[in-house]
């Protein structure tokens, strides 16, 4: 078997299957073990207990699939057309959704293509041990991708690529073939730029390539289902699912190309992302509209929680407080955020010039109702 030829074929097949780049590396991540342990010791993983549960397995791919010799790291670009960049952040009555989640859930799509790639390889060899992963196993995907030549890890801890910036998904295919490995060509090109660090609304990037998840808006709105700490609620603004701020300011993202995958284009449901419209969805509507979306997994209550915080941060509108009040009593944790948002809307009302008595009367009625419920 000509392993060099096979490695070249694998990259060609990867392109045919929709990947924008495929690199090959070994499984040696020992240099990252101390970094990983320090990150866990500092509690930067927050309540993502599985991070600590698997320990150093993340830096040892061969423990996931005994006999693994190589990792195929694959990149699939997702930047959608009409991504609207930061315009949604400026429209404080609309919800901002992280770009990666505007379209179809990438997990199954990328994993299926990795499996097809493995099957192509399998046709060329006598036997192949393999296992595909897309955020589905304890593995350090970015260090592996960096070793495989897909780019470099930026100061925001995301992988950066000269062609795609950081707007791409990563997937890994573990195999037991001793293929020739790729030598990274790109050195770290971040230089003295600290735009990602200074732009983070919650100062979650606590050191070079180190993110404290407990402060990260993506963690708080997606991975964390508890009471969002008061100190972060104002900084969340109108970000109702994830946050792209550190990517939006990155110079390497300015020239990133639009994805060729229609699956990652903006869903019709988000053409009008007004907070009240999204907040009005019943649980059944939420599940139906978010079918096939990564957003579906946070559940309806957390969806309402996130939007409630955004409404609390929005300028006053007379229809916000009644909408918030109507949701009270569904869930104790949700109530905490609803009451906070109501209080914030009342405070915003005081800043509205020439408020008529009718609006003031509405607030008094709502206040009486809340105190009676309490």
Automatic annotation (TrEMBL):
Catalytic reaction annotation: epoxyqueuosine(34) in tRNA + AH2 = queuosine(34) in tRNA + A + H2O
Keyword Signal: no
Location of the protein in the cell: Cytoplasm
UniProt binding sites for cob(II)alamin: 58, 135, 159, 170, 218, 243-244
Active site residues per record: 135 (proton donor)
Pathway the protein contributes to: tRNA modification; tRNA-queuosine biosynthesis
Single GO molecular function: epoxyqueuosine reductase activity
Cross-referenced InterPro entries: 4Fe4S_Fe-S-bd, 4Fe4S_Fe_S_CS, QueG, QueG_DUF1730
Protein source organism: Vibrio agarivorans
Cofactor-binding details, from the entry: Binds 2 [4Fe-4S] clusters per monomer.
Binding site for [4Fe-4S] cluster 2: 200, 216, 243, 246
UniProt protein name: Epoxyqueuosine reductase
């Amino acid at each position: 078997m000509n392993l060099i030829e096979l490695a070249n074929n694998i990259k060609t097949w990867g392109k045919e299957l929709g990947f924008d780049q495929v690199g090959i590396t070994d499984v040696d991540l020992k240099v990252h073990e101390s970094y990983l342990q320090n990150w866990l010791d500092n509690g930067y993983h927050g309540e993502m207990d599985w991070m600590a549960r698997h320990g150093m397995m993340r830096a040892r791919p061969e423990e996931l699939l005994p006999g693994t010799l190589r990792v195929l790291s694959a990149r699939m670009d997702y930047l959608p057309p009409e991504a609207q960049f930061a315009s949604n952040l400026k429209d404080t009555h609309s919800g901002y959704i992280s770009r990666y989640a505007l379209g179809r859930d990438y997990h199954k799509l990328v994993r299926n293509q990795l499996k097809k790639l493995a099957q192509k390889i399998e046709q060329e060899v006598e036997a192949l041990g393999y296992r595909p992963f897309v955020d589905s196993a304890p593995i350090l995907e970015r260090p592996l991708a960096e070793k495989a030549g897909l780019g470099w890890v930026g100061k925001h801890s995301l992988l950066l690529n000269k062609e795609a910036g950081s707007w791409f998904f990563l997937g890994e295919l573990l195999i037991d073939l001793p293929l020739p490995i790729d030598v990274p060509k790109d050195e770290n090109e971040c230089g003295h730029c600290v735009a990602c660090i200074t732009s983070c609304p919650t100062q979650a990037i606590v050191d070079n390539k180190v993110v404290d998840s407990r402060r990260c808006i993506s963690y708080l709105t997606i991975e964390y289902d508890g009471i969002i700490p008061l100190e972060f609620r104002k900084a969340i603004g109108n970000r109702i699912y994830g946050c792209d701020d550190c990517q939006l300011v990155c110079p390497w993202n300015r020239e990133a190309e639009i994805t060729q995958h229609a699956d990652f284009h903006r869903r019709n449901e988000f053409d009008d992302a007004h907070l009240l419209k999204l907040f009005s969805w019943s649980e059944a509507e939420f599940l139906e509209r978010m079918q096939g979306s990564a957003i579906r997994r946070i559940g309806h209550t957390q969806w309402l929680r996130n939007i409630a915080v955004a409404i609390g941060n929005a300028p006053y509108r007379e229809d916000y407080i009644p909408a918030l009040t109507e949701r009270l009593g569904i869930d104790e944790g949700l109530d905490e955020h609803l009451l906070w948002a109501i209080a914030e809307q009342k405070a915003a009302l005081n800043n509205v010039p020439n408020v008529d008595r009718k609006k003031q009367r509405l607030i008094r009625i709502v206040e009486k109702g809340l105190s009676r419920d309490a």
